Structure formats: C-alpha cells, structure tokens
Description:
A: alpha/beta, 6-stranded parallel β-sheet, 6-stranded mixed β-sheet, globular, disordered N terminus, B: alpha/beta, 18 helices, disordered C terminus, Sugar ABC transporter ATP-binding protein (chain B), ABC_transporter-like_CS (chain B), ATP-binding (chain B), repeat (chain B)
Amino acid sequence: MATDTLKSTTGASGATGGLRRLLLDNGALTALIVLVIAMSALSGDFMTADNLLNVGVQAAVTAILAFGVTFVIVSAGIDLSVGSVAALSATVLAWSATSQGVPVALAVVLAIATGIACGLVNGFLISYGKLPPFIATLAMLSVGRGLSLVISQGSPIAFPGSVSHLGDTLGGWLPVPVLVMVLMGLVTAFVLGRTYIGRSMYAIGGNEEAARLSGLRVKRQKLAIYAFSGLFAAAAGIVLAARLSSAQPQAAQGYELDAIAAVVIGGASLAGGTGKASGTLIGALILAVLRNGLNLLSVSAFWQQVVIGVVIALAVLLDTVRRKAGATPVTAGASGDGRGRQAATYVLAAVVAAAVVGAMSFLHSGSSAAKDQKIGLALSTLNNPFFVQIRAGAQEEAKKLGVDLTVTDAQNDASQQANQLQNFTSEGLGTIIVNAVDSDAVTPAAKAVNKSGIPLVAVDRAVNNADTAALVASDNVTGGRLAAKSLADRLGGRGTIVVLQGQAGASASRERGAGFTAGLKAYPGIKVVAEQPADWDRTKGLDVMTNLLQAHPDIDGVFAENDEMALGAIKALGSKAGKSVAVIGFDGTADGLSAVKAGTLYASVAQQPTELGRIAVQNALKVAEGKKVTKSVMVPVKVVTKENVAGFSG
Amino acid sequence: MSNADELLRIEGIRKTFPGVVALDGVDFDLRRGEVHVLLGENGAGKSTLIKMLSGAHTPDAGRILVGGEEVRIHGAQDSERLGIATIYQEFNLVPDLTIAENIFLGRQPRRFGMIDRKTMEAEAEVLLARVGVNVSPRARVRELGIARLQMVEIAKALSLDARVLIMDEPTAVLTSEEVEKLFAIVRKLREDGVGIVFITHHLEEIAALGDRVTVIRDGKSVGQVPAVTPEDELVRLMVGRSIDQQYPRERADAGAALLTVEGLTRDGVFHDVSFQVHAGEVVGIAGLVGAGRTEVVRAVFGADPYDKGAVKVAGAEVRRGDVNAAMAAGIGLIPEDRKGQGLVLDASVEENLGLVTLRSATRAGLVDLKGQREAAARIADQLGVRMAGLWQHVRTLSGGNQQKVVIGKWLLADTKVLILDEPTRGIDVGAKVEIYQLINELTAAGAAVLMISSDLPEVLGMSDRVLVMAQGRIAGELAADEATQDAVMALAVSNPTHQKTETEATRGH
Lengths: 650, 509
C-alpha cells in the first residue's frame, strides 16, 4: 500500500519512475537482477533456457522450505527443524511405500501428516510449553533427524517410482519441482495476504500482546503456523527425494539455515511482523543463482562458500540501505537528502555488481586459458583428507595431460551434488567424473548426464543404475576384510574390540563394516563389544571413544572405518594406544601414515586416493577422446603397518 | 539578541517527513536559570523540536544557535559536547547495570585500562545526593521505581555538565508526591544556572514551576507568554480555540446493569471486588498506583486469570481467563500501555483498526479486506484520526491519534462494555476532549463505560459514579455529586482490609 501512495506522488515521471520505485522498494529484487546480469556477463552458459530451468529446480527445495519458514518468521518465531522434518517425511514416504507395502497415495498422505505432526509438536511446545521457538525447534531438528535414521536404519530407501516423477519434467522441458515451487509460492502469498491466519501472523509478529488483547487466539494460531511450516517441509522433502529417487536419512542437513537466509534476504525481519512470499522466492533464487553461477564459472569450491556468505550479507545490506532511502520522502521539495540516499542505493548496487564480477573473474582466472579438453570432477566432500588427496592426484594428472579440470564439492549432500552435475551438463564438458555422495541417490542426476551425451566416470564409489564408462575404485569390502584379519592376527585371535563407524547410512561405512564383519567370522575369539558412529570425524571419534572407554575400559582393539576417527580414538586412548590397545584405521591418509610410523596406529588399510584421482583423470581423458577403457579399474588396497610404511605413499 | 544569559536560540526551524510537515517556522530561546515550558497538543511538533536539539533529527531549514554561535547538531555526541542533555519519556537506562554504571555509561572513569569502580561510585554518590536520591550507586537500575529512574537520568545529565536540560513530560508517570520532589530538584538546578526546557500537558504545573511558555501549534510557534498566563488563555493558544468545558460529560439515563462483577479475587493481588456498571453509565475507578485497578480490569476482560468470583454481562456469566469469551459478551479493553499492548506499531492504521474485527470479517478462512478497509476509513474519519493515509504506520502517529486508533478498533466491534485504562495519559487537552466526547457518544448509545484514571479531575469530571480502590479492595463508592478530590483521596489512602478477618489478604501487602 505504501508503494501505491508513494508511486502516485512520483507518478509524473512515468514508467521509468515506477520501475525505479519497484527496485528501490525491493532491495532483494535489485540484488537478484544485478547478480543475473553479472553472471550472464561472465559465463556464456548462464543465460540459456536450460540453465535457467536448472536454477529453478535447484532453488525449489530451499524455496519451498523457506515459504514455510516465512509464516514462522512473520509471526516472530523461528523454525530450525525444517531440514530434518523434510528428511523425516521423505523417509516415512519411502519406508511405508517401499518396505511396508502401503499404497503410494496413502504413503504420501502419511508423509504430509508426519510433517504436520512435527509442526504441531513444535507449536505445542512453544504455545503451551512456553519453550522459546529456537529451543523447541532445535529439539525437533535432532528428533526428526534421529527418527529418519531409525526408520531407514541409516540407509537410503528407494523412492516409489510414481512419486519420483515429481523430480522429472513435464512435456520434456518444464521441471515439476519448479511447478511445485511456484504453486507453493502462490499458496503462501494467498495465505499471508488474504486469510485470517495470514493476517494474524503479521499481528502476532508485530505485537503479540496487542494481538491477544484484540481477541486473536494467539496460542491456537501458533499451532497452525508451525503446522504450516511442517507441511511445507514435508512437501520440500518429497520434492528433494523425488529428484534423487531415493529418501536419504541425511538429506537436507543445514537447509534450515538456507531457508532462513532466503526469508531474510527477501526482506523479512527476524523480529517479526514483515515478510512476503515474493521476497522469499527472490531470496531462494539469489542463493540458487549464486551456486549455479559459481559452478559454471568453475570457482574453487572453498572460495564458493566465501562468495556465498559475502553476497548474503551484501544483499541484506542493500535492502537496509533501500529502506533508509524509502523512509525519506521523494515528495514535496525533496531536498538533496532523499536523492542522496537513492544515489547511495545505486552506488551500493554497483559496488555489489563490481565485487561479484571482480571476485569471480579473479577466482576462476586459472581456468580461463583455452585448453583442448574440459573435465569436471564432482567430489562428495572436501572436508576429509582422503578426498582432498583424490583432488590432488586428479589435478596433478590434469596438469600433466594438459586438461582443464573443474572440481566441485557437494559437502556430502546428495541433492547439492545433483545440482552440480546438472550445472556440469550446461558447460559442454568432455567427461564428468563423479565421486557420488550416495550410489543410489546420484542415479537420477547420472541418468540426466547420460541423456546429455557426456560420458561419466565414477571414482571411489559406484553409480547404480546408470551408465558409467568406467569405475575407478578401491575395494571397500576387501579392505574391511583385510582390516579384520590384521587386527585379529595382532591380537592373537582373542580379545574384545570396538568399532567406530562412519556416518550412518554412508555407503563406504556400510561396505567397510560388512567386510570387517565378514572377515571377523574366521576369528571366534574376537568379540565386538560396541559399534558406534563417529561420522568420519576426528573430534567425534575422540568423544565417542572417550564415552566407550567409560563402559569398556579393558578393550584390546579398535577398528575405525577411517583414519580420522582412528586418530580421534588414539587421542582418547592416550598412552594405551599402540601398547595395550591396537587401533586400526582405513584410508592411509598422510596423518594416518605418520601415526603408523609413530606406532600409535597399528595399521591403516590404505587406499591410494592420489592414485584414484590420477587414474580417474586418465580414464576420463581416454573416454573423452573416444578411446576404449576398462569398465572397472580396481586400485589395490593394502594394509600399511610400521614394517612397510616407509615405502608407501598415498 | 546578544544577551549574555542566552543559552540557546532557535530561529525559523522547518522539518518535513513523508507526507507531513512536522515543523514550519518555530522560534524558541532559552536563558540561563529559567524553566521554559514548551506547550502544545500531541502532534504539534514538540518531540520533533527536541529531537533537533538532541541530534536525532536535522532541520531542513532554520538556525540553531548555542551561546550565540550557529551550530549543526548531527548526533548525540554533538549535543553532548554542546552541553545539551535530554530526558525522554522512555528512559535510556540499562536495567541490569548498576546506577553508577548507567550514569557513566560509555565514559566510565578508567585506571590502567580497567574501570575504576571506586571513583565511579564515589562520583555517582555525589550526583545522587544532588538529586536527592538516597540509594546506593551499586544498586541495579532494574530494582528502582519510575520516579527514581528519572532521578538517575537527571543525575546522568548532571554528570555531563549539561547547561541545557530538556525534560519531555517528566511528570506524566509520577505520583503527586513524586512530582513535588521533582519540582524541588528542578528549582535547585535553575538556581545553579541550568536552563531547562520543560514539556508538560498539566497546565497547573506551568504556574507552579515555569518562567516562560512557548506554545506550539501545528508545527508553528504561536506565542510566547509568561508562565502566569491564565490556563484558559494557554488552552486557547494551544488548540487555537477556547475549550468551554474541559470535561463535557453529558449524562445519559442509566439503564439495566450491563456489567456485574461479583467477589472477584486473585490471591495477593485483589480481593472481593464487586461492582456494577449500567448501560449509559460511566463508572470511574480511582486509586493510587499499585492499588490493583489495572489487575482487576484485566481479569474482567479475561486477559489474566482470577481465583474466585464471577463476571457477568447482561446477566450471563463470562468464562474466566478467556479474552474471546469476554469479547463475545461485548467487553472491550483499551489497555494502559498503548504502545506495548494496544497497537501493532509497525502495522498500518488500517490493520490496527481491523484487528478486533478480523475474525468476524473472515468467511471460510478468507478475510474481507475490502470491507475491512471501508470500515477502517469510516471509523478513522469519524474519530478524526490525523494521518497521511490509512497505510501510515501507527508508530509515526502522535499519542492522541494512536489512542484514537485503539479506541476505534473496539468501536468497530460494537462493544457494549468498554473498559478504558488511563485513556488520556500523555494526550493533549484537545485530544482529551475529543476522547471524552466519544465516551459521551458511547453511553448515549447505551454502552457501559468503566474508566481507570490517575488524573483526579478527569475521574471526577467524567464519571457518574466513582469507585475508589486501595490495597486491592474497593475502599468505597462515591456518587458524582459527593465525589470531591478530598473524598477520593481519603478513601484511596484508607486501609480497607481491617473490615476483613482474612489474614491472607494482609500478608499480600
């Protein structure tokens, strides 16, 4: 309304004035436009219909989550649980339809009901339990994630085919997730603008006590508000899982923060009382455009995170400046002051644009030199030395062969990896090397790559149900078996041991664990007294081991499914490590090997990650050049102990 | 012009906000050792004027001279440097810091980079003695009452060696005894040569304290008169017309009892409160602050629970602790804290006016936005809300206009029993009379009005009956013709608990 009135005062300046007004009133929209212009200037691949649809698909899940969170934030609350609830709802759908034989339609209803139920619990705790929203939803974040792991027993579950169509396209070009996003956005705008509950949200967010004393049933409304958020989270979870054709218990981790960021970038205040569906959509699009553009520009995975953070801050800053400018009249006798602030807005927008353009051209300058072949490497994570070594090997080989190599980091998020693969296909690469976050979840994205005609090489982890020209991997199951044998031999076939598992549900953890269990069958004298996950992480390995030692102070051995956790366990064991307790790790990372040298780590089942990276690039180049390659290249694993460590390097 | 005693001079100040000209040609001057009262209706521009002096706003045109030199004040630091200190209605104190820390906030005396608590507290003690407050400088500000908070603010201003002290309605929240204390301190500051800009709506305070009066109306200074000017004349200057009657109560015929409260009790807060309000009647509730008046009406409205007793509207009992039940029965509450409880400050006039009727304007979950807007436009027009448009955020309205919006939302809901808790606090004379006239219209239409007020002339002038509360009980009831200030005060300070044998009640106090 304010817009209308102000517009009428500047009406004389006509259409351009109206446009200027629109942009000034909508800092986020300005930021989005600036970003789009910057991206199209920098990358010829950005402004294509296909790629823009990709951006839409990649924004969809965040946007749908953010629409739900918009309700909560407008009413001055916060919902941290949406990511977990999304994963839980998707898991419930897949589990009931796939493993329990529930009809798919009913399973969808069940999934939606799960989301709503989680929201109601949040709302109940907040309204009637008087818990701060931050705490109530933080608790739900943990409960939701835990329940989805419990239901799925840690493994991804295949999504029923009929629901998976939600991840496909309509008529061969219109992606269904985009459609769902638009639909949910319209619903959000309608609820916020026209309905009783929507108008109540603004009143409650603006002044809860005044709303209560005006007869609004604040407690009941809050139940409904959080239920809405749960409902939208369920929808987002279903879309996410449909894209991956698989419900991942670990999906959508950290998405709640993206959703909150999208809402705030869109102009809502965390203090409540303001916020719009259109703003939230723009916020989600800004995030998606950024990620997509940074992929297209081959910006280093680490710098991407820096750039995203900076752009989020700048987008909100732009909006704040815009508001200040808007607060000064353009009406009668507007002095230099008002215009000065408007000018400030433009200047800031220009600075943002310049910063984005400058940073990106700087950051991807390394790859701008023209080379014959372009190869993309989609890594599952760079948060672990093993994968960093894969990258190192790949980069070394690429340099040697004169290949232009682009590396992306999916941060262990299957959905982000799907986005990155999608972005690779817009770039006209010779070959794509994929190190799948999850062998099943990568399938739909891999199929899309197949369709685009770009050959695919898998490294370290297989890609199920899609064509790969080659798989370059070390054998995890064999490795697990080898670990069991060497540990048992060291203990003389007798003793008690504990197992530190990788992230629940990760395929490497399952395979290594399976190999280890199988290997131990030959040694009935060895007893596994505890198996606990420590998420591949050194700190968690330390914590979990410390806890286990309280319960089992007299263990003789530890098997950690990677070196990082083994090193954490060694910290926890202190002087016992390598003396009364034998620790065996996996991967053969540099840190792990030095611990082997030092004697604290008895052995590490060494993969040769550098070798994996190197061979993957060699094969990728061959494939790109149309040469024949072996379908499956097994890079040998070997047990590295103090005796042979000297001659070994990853 | 070159008067050596002149501390401050303002010439032809102009300031505009979106759609509003807040100030348009204001002249003002302040001498050493005088109390210069700034008088004007709410929205006349007093607050904007003092914000120019404290650096919160900068003028569009005009000059500000301090000690004969033209200055530009761009922020709190500038005004502090010029020796100008402002005490706002809302205090700028940090509740969980001590008094000494608050006084020296940001300027704590330091030794070796650490805060020198000893020096700071000793200096604070001297300042507190100067303003006549006998509290330890180590006490936390949270523990202080409003009067003492104000004294701490004054002490803070003194610590800055302020030569100009601006006080924005300092007496609005004080009891009469506290007001006397404040006056004594202000007089002492005047003797010390401080120039004081004093804003008040209480005309009787002008003669008691002031030296000169500048009247502002619609953003212009319309006159400068000595403080001994008769009140009628001041009112005429302020509202631009003479107000014949300050309390234009027109008595309607009292009908049947609409609101009946029987034996309402919340342990330790109020006890055995019973009264009736008839259709067409205004019942005033007088009493000291803390007598339990607000607590009782909030319980009647269902905003807070009670332990015993009953509330009936037209004979039907209303469910306890349920705002919606009270509303359904036709009760409405204009709360004491307008900004905190009455309004959604960052929402528009339209949205605020539509809050109470939001539910009834909803069909199948959808709000009839067009109907809401029409109703809001109609009531805003009827109440004469001064605004740039229905879209204006209520935060930017003046106090009187904000109160009209709060009342308006209940008028839209066809309220039968309207409870007004301090309806005219911080509102100027002109707007007050408009609100009294609204009350007349309501009772003429057969509504019942229950009004709490700490302003005795208002209670006496507007009520058909006066209930006096003391220590959580009804100490007595006075008919309009027997209600005098003395009679009310006598009841207000009485101890009504002695009639009861309940020990619990006395323990609560």
